[in-house]
Amino acid sequence: MGPAAFVLRGFALPYVDELLPAIAGIEEVAPFRNMVTPGGFTMSVALTNCGALGWTTDRRGYRYTNVDPDSQQPWPEMPVAFDRLAREAAAAAGFPDFEPDACLVNRYLPGSRLSLHQDKNELDYNAPIVSVSLGMTATFLFGGQERTDKTAKVMLYHGDVAVWGGEDRLRYHGVMPLKDAPHPRLGSKRINFTFRKAA
Ligand code: MD3
Ligand code: FE
Hints:
The chain is an alpha+beta fold. The chain contains two helices and twelve strands. The protein has helices at about 15-30, 80-90, and strands at about 5-10, 45-50, 55-60, 60-65, 100-110, 115, 130-135, 140, 150-155, 160-165, 175, 190-195. It has a six-stranded antiparallel β-sheet, covered by helices on one side. Strands 6-11-8-9 form a four-stranded antiparallel β-sheet, with no helix packed on it. A two-stranded antiparallel sheet has the order 3-4. The chain is globular and about 40 Å long. The mean pLDDT is about 95. The structure holds N-(carboxycarbonyl)-S-(naphthalen-2-ylmethyl)-L-cysteine (MD3) and fe (iii) ion. N-(carboxycarbonyl)-S-(naphthalen-2-ylmethyl)-L-cysteine binds near residues 5, 119 and 131.
């Protein structure tokens, strides 16, 4: 997609049988919830986290926390299969030393969308971000370094892994409203998890 942005088609498919029960385990401890942005809007995407740090938002701002704000308990541990997939995908895209400490898990239902944004809450922009798509197909918007730059549409299918770092790390990106075309395995749902080095 860019000089340091890659979509590894189907890279996560061999992991799906391990990923789905791991997601169910995370959900049990830290359920998906629709968080409120600093601007006061409730996100149409519901989220949870695993790993040492989790991304959250409320009226006070965006940040990473080491506890779930709903339960005040630590976020669930990063499942071993998650960590292995993240490191192998990063290495395959040319980032052999990726050590994720945060995994944001997004749940999309029909109509859910993510408006154009940059991922800027991490301390070290040298580390790449790895994202795994499961379930319904999404139309991903891949923009430039400015919000007003032209965007390209990229379809993300069940099992695809995207890796972006280097000069593409701060590109604007988003997800178009999800169309309801139920997936044989996950039904009317899309799960995306994003591995980051936050601290
Ligand atoms: C950025 N998630 O949680 S990541 C997010 O599908 C987020 O839930 C999206 O953006 C989601 O912050 C998409 C996928 C992605 C793929 C390639 C990129 C983001 C990218 C390339 C450059 C910049
Ligand atoms: Fe993002």
